[in-house]
Amino acid sequence: MDRTHEKYRRLLDFCKSLPPTPTAVAHPCDESSLRGAMDAARIGLISPILVGPRARIDRIATEFGIALGSATVVDTPHSEASAARAVEIVREGKAEALMKGSLHTDELMGAVVNRDTGLRTARRVSHCFVMDVPSYPETLIVTDAAVNIAPTMADKVDIIQNAIDLAHALRFEQVRVAILSAMETVNPKIPSTVEAAALCKMADRGQIKGAIVDGPLALDNAISLESLKIKHIDSPVAGRANVLVVPDLEAGNMLAKSLSFLAGADAAGIVLGARVPIILTSRADPITTRLASCGVAALVAQARREAAQRAVS
Predict the structure, then answer these.
(1) How many whole angstroms separate alpha carbon 157 and alpha carbon 123?
(2) Which of 7, 87, 184, 286 is 20 to 30 Å apart from 215, CA to CA?
(3) pLDDT tens digit sequence for 99-145
């Protein structure tokens, strides 16, 4: 456990070399959300645009001694309006990331996926936990544990591609995707094993790009080299996966929380597939996790800038 936060510290140190990411913060109207945004601004991760009732934001800042500095405040009457205006600021090109404040996730994501005024792209929106597990040598991406409840195989193509793109933005040297199930063999009685096999073939045919993809794999096969020796599994992914794709939200939620509460892992959260990265944090998140979520978004925003520059040149 002496390696706690080690991977996040490396991430945050790297982000110090990047310019602050202009970020619309939707309804930061409690201490944790306002302090999280301003702490991220203080160390140069984001340049916040605070969207919410100005009087409430000022009152929270005064009550808890949170310096707002030169942060822009956009006045809105309530949380629903805050979400809509924050999304509008992104659409106007004034922000390159969106951050959840003290409103409900459903309110923010409702504004994001609105067909007329939201931030939809051709990709399905999905969530990734970027996890610093002290006992595991690599950063782990777990997807999707927060947005897609029972994704179809077509949904999983986007979920996997979003995670691969995130891994590249995080500068993974090699992206190794394990599609998880209860076993490492295809069993027609367990649909997730059949889907995993089909997704691997899609990756072979270039329908999923930028990673080595294998599955189905049970969790032990995916992350334990010892289990490979016992079960005689030959795989370029098994034993050292750095992206874990779960069958559904229930499995993902239990996996992420098990890693957090039983293995002492930190879990930074990011939503991908929209026009900009979306920072989702919980009131229970420690400051290191909140900052890491902002750092992940900063790296995704930087990767998009670089891609845009390559497209122009």
Answers:
(1) 9
(2) 7
(3) 999 999 999 999 999 999 999 999 999 999 999 999 899 899 999 99
- The answer, yes or no, to whether the previous bond of 144 is cis (omega within 30 of 0) is yes
Are 209 and 161 in contact by the 8 Å Cβ rule? The answer is yes
Q: What is the pLDDT of residues 163-214, one digit of tens each?
A: 999 999 999 999 999 999 999 999 999 999 999 999 999 999 999 999 999 9
Tokens encoding 137: 């040598």
Q: How high is the pLDDT of residue 2?
A: 43
* C-alpha–C-alpha distance, residues 148 and 163, integer Å: 14
Instruction: Decide if 279 contacts 297 (C-beta within 8 A).
Output: yes
CA distance readout (Å), 90 to 277, 280, 284: 11, 16, 27
- The Cα–Cα gap between 210 and 189 comes to 30
Domains of the chain: 123-273 (3.40.718.10)
Residue 23 has pLDDT above 90, yes or no: yes
With left for phi above 0 and alpha for psi between -120 and 50, is residue 272 left, alpha or beta? beta
Q: Is residue 265 a contact partner of residue 286, using CB atoms and an 8 Å limit?
A: no
